Amino acid sequence: MTKQGYVHSIETGSAIDGPGIRSVIFLQGCPFRCLFCHNPDTWTQTTDHVRTVEEVVQEALKYQDFYQLSGGGVTLSGGEPLVQPAFVAAVFQALHARGVHTALDTCGYVDLTPEVKEAIKNTDLFLLDIKHLHPDTHKKLTGKPNDKVLAFLNYLRDCGKDIWIRIVLVPGYSTDPAYAQEVATFLKAYPTVRKVELLPYHELGKVKWEKLGYTYPLQNISPPDKATVQAVTQVFADNGFSVLISKP
């Protein structure tokens, strides 16, 4: 293994980025500019964060006993990991060789190149963010349309890959129960969706935006209240989905 990648940071002991106890490796680079992004410091790649596959794998393997005891493993997040598909594939190949479960937190906005398909092959679980089903709203939220995201989802289904769908609940965009029902109906066509994970919008990224000199775009939006989150949760539960509510 000689591949290198742009790695922002590594977090250990996570219980919210896939099953069990996990190490989460945040990579740099992302095609989206989500209005609610809480990691804007991962948008671009910088050479002072270059690490080799060997370095990342050895760091992750320090916690292998915890993975085995809890049914956990390693999650690659970001940014968008599939900006670096060869690096993702190499890291996950090495972890698989040691019996470690792999998960990928991705926005799915990629072309299905041979390198991306190789990364997909070596991923056990996809935490796929659907920012919005409506193309215009998706572009308003992220700066990009959602055609590639939906094509990616279709490919994962065709490959039989396990998927958790992640939905950020942003008031005014994705908290209407009628929209939740639309998403639930849409997802019934994807039998490998094992869970719907709801992430209530929060403002923890605002400080990062300000430190980077960016204007935070959702200044006038507050996190959804408990009743709103519960109403959306109930819609997915009523449609037969296992629902997880993640807190920051």
The Rg value, from CA coordinates, equals 17 Å
Low-confidence stretches: none
C-alpha geometry: globular
Mean pLDDT: 96
Distance between the termini: 34 Å
Q: Do you know the CATH topology?
A: TIM Barrel
Task: Domain count, please report it.
Answer: 1
Do you know the CATH architecture?
A: Alpha-Beta Barrel
The strand line-up of the biggest sheet is 3-1-2-4-5-6-7-8-9
Instruction: Describe the oligomeric state of these chains in a short phrase.
Output: single chain
Helix content: 25-40%
Strand content: 15-25%
Order of helices and strands: EEEHHEHEHEHHEHEHHE
| Extended strand count | 9
Specify the CATH homologous superfamily: Aldolase class I
Q: What can be said about the biggest beta sheet? A: 9 strands, mixed
Please give the CATH class: Alpha Beta
Please identify the structural class as seen in this structure: alpha/beta
Count of helices?
9
What report would you give on this structure?
Helix 1 (53-61) packs across helix 3 (85-97) and helix 7 runs parallel beside helix 9 (226-238). The chain has 248 residues and is of the alpha/beta class. The chain has helices at 53-61, 64-70, 85-97, 114-121, 135-142, 147-159, 177-187, 206-211, 226-238; strands at 4-14, 22-27, 50-52, 73-77, 101-106, 125-129, 162-169, 193-200, 243-245. The protein has a nine-stranded mixed β-sheet with strand order 3-1-2-4-5-6-7-8-9. It has one domain (4-245): Aldolase class I (TIM Barrel, Alpha-Beta Barrel), CATH 3.20.20. The chain contains nine helices and nine strands.
